[in-house]
Structure formats: C-alpha cells, structure tokens
C-alpha cells in the first residue's frame, strides 16, 4: 500500500495543480466535458466537498433555501423515525474515534441531526439502514453539517433513484440491470450465477446501498463518489462490471454458493482495487463497445 501511495501522491500533486488552475481561486465551475474528465481523474481532497456540492446541485439548493435545514431540526419530530435513527447510531463507524460518544466535536450528534432532518425533509424515504453510512461519510468529507444534508438530498432524492424508499424499486431494478449487463459482457459469470441459482441482490446489494463504503478501500471509494456526484448511478455499474470482468477467471473457480459469495468478497480487496487511479480508468471504460463508442451519453 505504501508503495502505491507514494506513486499516487505524485498523481495527486499533479492533479492539485491542474485543479487550482481550473478553479482560479474563485471556487466556481460549470459542468463541462473538461470538468468531467478532471473529475474522473480525481478531485483533490481540499476541493472535494466544494466540487461535490456544485456538480450535484446541492450548492444551488442550499443557496435557494436558506434556513430550511435549521427549520427541519427545530420542527416537530416523528418518534418512530427518531428511534430508528438512534438505534443505528452506535453501529455507524464504531471503529472511527470521531463517531464515539466522547469525541469532540462529536460526529455522532452531527450524524443524528442530518438523518433526522433528512427523514423529515423526505417523508417517503424517512430513514433506512445504509443511509447512516452514506451520511457519516459525507460528514467526514465535508466536515459541515448542512452541506452533508444537501449532499444526502442530492444522492437520495435525485442521483440514486429510489434506492432507499420503502419498496426499494430503484435498487431492485438496478440490481437486475447489473445482472443483464453481466450476461452481455461477462456471460460465463452470469451462467455460473444461474447454475447455482444465486440472486444478484445477495452479492451486490451492499455495493449499491452503501456505495462501496467499507467494501472497497477508502481512497477508491472517494474516487467513485467523485464520479457519482457528476455522472450519477451508472458509475456503480461500471465499477461493478470492472470488478467482475477483471476477476472473471477467479470467480469461475467457484463450485457452490458459499464459494461464490466468498469470491465476490475477495475481489473487493487487493492491488487491483487499491490502485484507485488505474482502477477508475478501467471502470469508466468498462461499458465501452468494440467500436469504441461508449454509453456515456446515457
Ligand atoms: C450507544 O452507546 C452509548 C455509550 O456507549 C450508550 O450509552 C447508549 O445507550 C447506546 N445507545 C444505543 C441505542 O444502544
Ligand atoms: C424523496 O426520495 C425519493 C426517492 O429517491 C424521490 O423520488 C423524491 O423526489 C424525494 N423527495 C424529496 C422531497 O426530496
């Protein structure tokens, strides 16, 4: 990992210089092909929160609704919602000291506020497991409660269609779609899944719900999120396909259901996923057809 990181630092430095030229100190950008290309190569840490805010539309919504977030927090609360959120508090990043009850500032309180506010903002969704990790990650990156709320709103309300609403129709659909993509792109793996009657949801629902948090290495997750905020949920498919394609031979060694599950766990570790820069290059081109035309416009 250290060897990778020393190489990655060089890339990060180069990208940081390019980004500061792009932003020219005024911290404003418009969506464009150039910005998209830049984002695919990674947003430097110091600009990450801002760029996520801008390209997801969260910044615009926050500016158009001053005081809205605080009003949600001051408003009346649903007891069931509050209970559900409280139950998950101690289970969210228990290994991260910043989320301990004794931490100062205590991110657990911030997380609680963001989730309670969101549950009252979007009553169709309310709260469901998985959102705690997404919101927690947003808080760690933005270090800002209100921005985390608006980014959560961008993700759940617009970018990820219906992943967290009670019926989870969007999530179910997207898992089916992934299954179909695998059938087209990596047919032998689809055939293996069929033969053993394995449902994709058993394997990939956490990939979709947690957006790879605690599944892939942190730096890789951030690079994936960079692209999700700009390009949307199609990035999840691209990453999943890249993972499966790369490890096709390894997955095909599986001879039974537990084996298949284990293989899919193992492919989320190791050099391929740690080398986040190369990994993202492979991922964003993972849906390319033979003609070189990509599905990018979809
Ligand atoms: C969470 O942990 C704290 C302290 O460790 C404890 O006081 C509290 O009761 C726990 N909450 C739940 C809902 O388990
Ligand atoms: C709530 O989330 C659902 C599902 O993602 C979305 O369709 C809806 O527009 C959201 N509503 C609000 C008020 O954000």
UniProtKB/TrEMBL annotation:
PROSITE patterns: TBC_RABGAP. Pfam families: RabGAP-TBC (PF00566). It comes from the Eukaryota. InterPro entries: Rab-GAP-TBC_dom (IPR000195), Rab-GAP_TBC_sf (IPR035969), Rab_GAP_TBC_domain (IPR050302). Keywords: GTPase activation. Residues 42-232 form the Rab-GAP TBC domain. GO terms for molecular function: GTPase activator activity; small GTPase binding. SUPFAM superfamilies: Ypt/Rab-GAP domain of gyp1p (SSF47923). May act as a GTPase-activating protein for Rab family protein(s). PANTHER family: GROWTH HORMONE-REGULATED TBC PROTEIN 1, RAB GTPASE-ACTIVATING PROTEIN 1-LIKE. This is Rab-GAP TBC domain-containing protein. It comes from Gopherus agassizii (Agassiz's desert tortoise).
């Amino acid at each position: 990992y250290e060897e990778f990181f020393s190489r990655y630092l060089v890339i990060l430095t180069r990208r940081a210089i390019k980004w500061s030229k792009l932003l020219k100190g005024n911290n404003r950008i418009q969506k464009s092909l150039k910005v998209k290309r830049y984002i695919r190569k990674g947003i430097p840490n110091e600009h990450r929160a801002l760029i996520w805010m801008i390209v997801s539309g969260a910044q615009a919504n926050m500016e158009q609704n001053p005081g809205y977030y605080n009003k949600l927090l001051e408003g009346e609360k649903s007891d069931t919602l509050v209970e559900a959120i409280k139950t998950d508090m101690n289970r969210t990043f228990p290994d991260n000291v910043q989320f301990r009850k004794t931490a100062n500032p205590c991110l657990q309180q911030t997380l609680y506020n963001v989730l309670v506010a969101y549950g009252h903002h979007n009553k169709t969704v309310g709260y469901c497991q998985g959102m705690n990790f997404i919101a927690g990650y947003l808080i760690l990156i933005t270090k800002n409660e209100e921005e985390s709320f608006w980014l959560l709103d961008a993700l759940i309300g617009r970018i990820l269609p219906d992943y967290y609403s009670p019926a989870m129709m969007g999530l179910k659909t997207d898992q089916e779609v992934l299954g179909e993509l695998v059938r087209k792109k990596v047919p032998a793996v689809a055939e293996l899944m069929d033969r053993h009657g394995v449902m994709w949801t058993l394997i990939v629902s956490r990939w979709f719900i947690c957006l790879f948090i605690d599944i892939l290495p942190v730096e890789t997750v951030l690079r994936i999120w960079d692209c999700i905020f700009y390009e949307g949920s199609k990035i999840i498919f691209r990453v999943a396909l890249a993972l499966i394609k790369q490890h096709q031979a390894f997955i095909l060694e599986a001879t039974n259901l537990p084996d298949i599950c284990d293989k899919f766990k193992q492919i989320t570790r190791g050099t391929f996923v740690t080398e986040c820069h190369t990994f993202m290059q492979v991922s964003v081109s993972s849906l390319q057809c033979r003609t070189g035309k990509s599905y990018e416009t979809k």
